[in-house]
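Lecture notes, unit on protein representations.

Consider one protein chain, 205 amino acids long.
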Amino acid sequence: MKIVYECGKIMGTKRYQSDELFVKDNVFAVADGMGDKNAGKLASKIAIQLLEENLYNLEKAFITINKEIINRLSKHADGLICGTTLSVVKLDFESSRYNVYHAGDSKVFLIRNKSLIPLTVDQNKIENGKKYVKALGINWHVDIYKQEGEILQNDVFFISTDGICDIIDLFDELPDKTPKGIKGFIVSHKDKLIDNLSFIVLKVF
């Protein structure tokens, strides 16, 4: 099996970017920093740096990232909540299996045949009209959502920040399900984006 992938970052109405993308050794990840622009950006960078150092134990990576963000940023956030989402897809071609590790409300979808299958569950809640996200760096306890399954030829994995919610309904109209085609489709609808959107789209042959 082989992989073809595309990455993209699109600025919505926010004036700063706190997202980070990661691709290495069949591991693909998206982190979306939360909090003020400096703390959020640093949180997502910490996540990607420590992920790369712990590629062979992703559960340990999430726990280490969570502790590091709390230890480094809690003293400098001026009482504001700061942290980062993290959604990771790891492909193992020897076993033809994929593993998803996830914290927060970024997204992982599997596009198989004509179906758009969510592989993550949002870890958030709405109270008094405000959204609270269970991201890394918020609490000492880490709630890691995990999913696994079989890899089939022509599977497409789409990993993104929650900005995709602004246009996800349009995915029913995808004319071209290649990474290049999906990226082009998203860019052609960027005027509909409110939130920032960072994504990785990959196809298995």
